[in-house]
Design a protein that fits this description.
mainly beta; Leucine-rich repeat, LRR (right-handed beta-alpha superhelix); Immunoglobulin-like; 11-stranded parallel β-sheet; 30 strands; 30% strand
Length: 462
């Protein structure tokens, strides 16, 4: 009991081992205050509130007390500060709030000095950083909720975000000289996505890994941007609003997911003042329809009869029958197994996707959708009996020019052989019959596991 009491008495000392202030501290510290802070708290490495960067010019190494800090509970703010680098913050690893650099008055060309910073609890904001050329200097950043870069006219290089896979509060980039967004190539989740007024930006390929935008997408006033390629992996039904406007060169908008978003009316769309084929909602819809009509489903193979609970193997080709080259990273097929008496509105649609090499689907090219296995039972079949296998490209609803329809007979689930009333046949009959009474000439035409009758005896194909 005495040993346990000793441990409990020592536990509070762990929390105060750094002797950091816990009450009575100011809402912010100026850099000039840090010299006294390290005198008062010589073993404290955490600043309990916000750090304001200086207005009197120079390098942050002029404030040597900053090197004692490895974490800041509040924000790091520059509101028209005068600094040439962040070198004095080389020990900083953690910022609980946001890092905001707003209109620095000295020549700040990169983020050198924040090399060890790994966590920003809020946003990284770079606003009116007129001399900023690169975000080089934040190579170890692995957590931040928002990146906002605005009015950084000379910014040409985005680096340091390789370990960022989520920006829950959004990505906002406007008024830069960026030609691409390649620094975000591992990003998978974004709140809002806003890319505006970047005159040199010519592609969005750097966003190819993004799967979810849980908010709006706005692509606005990027005069050199020709295509939305790079946004084609985004799940369309998570987008809340789509805005495509004032992109003078933008003519390729009919990505698979953009077509689905518009045609399924998942949310509002605002599309105007772009180039041909992307100048209105109707323009994009027409291009979506054209893409669907260009691509056909051919050489469909699947068994003509399958047991209700069995896997259905399926193979087919997508073929570009047009004279147009389509620049798409992948192509998806919608697949439905439906009885003749089920209306299309009740379809249970399955989807499979195949990547397209180099993102180019040229005239005459084909994509083999192979090794597609659909699991049987109620998740695939609405009822046993005669069904149809309907396959079409997922760009729009099926039309005759792009859709394959093939017959499939689904045998009912059988729990006992005795539940079935078998037809009787003469023993001299050499033909093979399945349980529905259909005649077969070769046993090799039966699927494995199929029950059949030959010479009046029941068998299961092995």
């Amino acid at each position: 009991m005495k040993k346990r009491l000793l441990i409990l008495l020592c536990l509070p000392m762990i929390g105060f081992g750094q002797n950091c202030p816990t009450i009575g501290f100011p809402s912010y510290y100026n850099c000039s205050d840090i010299a006294q802070f390290v005198v008062d708290y010589p073993n404290c490495t955490n600043l309990p509130s916000t750090l304001r960067l200086p207005y009197d010019g120079g390098d942050l190494t002029n404030y040597p007390g900053l090197t004692q800090l490895d974490s800041i509970s509040g924000n790091v703010t520059c509101d028209e500060c005068e600094i040439t680098s962040f070198a004095g913050l080389s020990a900083l690893k953690y910022v609980g709030g946001s890092v905001s650099i707003d209109e620095p008055h000295d020549i700040l060309t990169d983020l050198y000095g924040l090399t060890n910073l790994s966590h920003i609890g809020g946003s990284l904001t770079l606003l009116e950083c007129g001399d900023l050329i690169s975000t080089n200097g934040i190579a170890n950043l692995n957590s931040v909720n928002q990146v906002r870069i605005s009015e950084c006219d000379n910014l040409v290089n985005i680096v340091g975000f390789d370990d960022i896979d989520s920006l829950a509060w959004g990505l906002y980039i406007d008024e830069t000289s960026l030609t691409n967004l390649n620094g975000f190539h591992n990003l998978k989740f974004i709140g809002n996505l806003e890319i505006s007024d970047n005159p040199m930006l010519n592609n969005l390929i750097g966003l190819s890994s993004v799967l979810t935008v849980d908010g709006y997408i706005e692509i606005d006033d990027n005069i050199s941007l020709q295509s939305l390629l790079g946004l084609d992996s985004i799940i369309p039904n998570q987008i809340s609003n789509l805005i495509l406007k004032d992109n003078d060169s933008l003519s390729y908008c009919n990505l698979d997911n953009i077509c689905e978003y518009i045609n399924q009316a998942y949310g509002p769309s605002t599309i105007y003042a772009n180039n041909t084929n992307c100048n209105s909602i109707v323009d994009v819809q027409n291009q979506c329809l054209s893409l669907s009509q260009d691509i056909s489903v051919e050489l469909v193979w699947h068994p003509d009869t399958v047991n209700y609970e069995d896997i259905l193997p399926l193979e087919f080709l997508f073929v570009n029958n047009s004279s147009t080259t389509h620049y798409i990273d992948s192509i998806s097929a919608n697949i439905v197994i439906t009885p003749d008496n089920i209306a299309p509105s009740n379809w249970q649609i399955l989807s499979v996707t195949q990547n397209i090499p180099q993102g180019i689907f040229a005239p005459g090219d084909s994509i083999w959708m192979f090794n597609t296995f659909l699991y049987g039972g109620s998740q695939l079949y609405q009822q046993a009996g005669d069904n149809l296998v309907v396959i079409w490209p997922s760009f729009v609803t099926p039309i005759s020019s792009d859709t394959s329809i093939t017959p499939l007979h689904v045998l009912p689930a059988v729990t006992s052989v005795n539940e079935l009333n078998y037809p009787t046949y003469e023993e001299s009959d050499n033909f093979i019959y399945d349980l529905m009474g259909r005649r077969y000439y070769e046993i090799n035409t039966l699927l494995k596991g199929t029950m059949y009758i030959r010479d009046g005896k029941k068998y299961i194909k092995k």
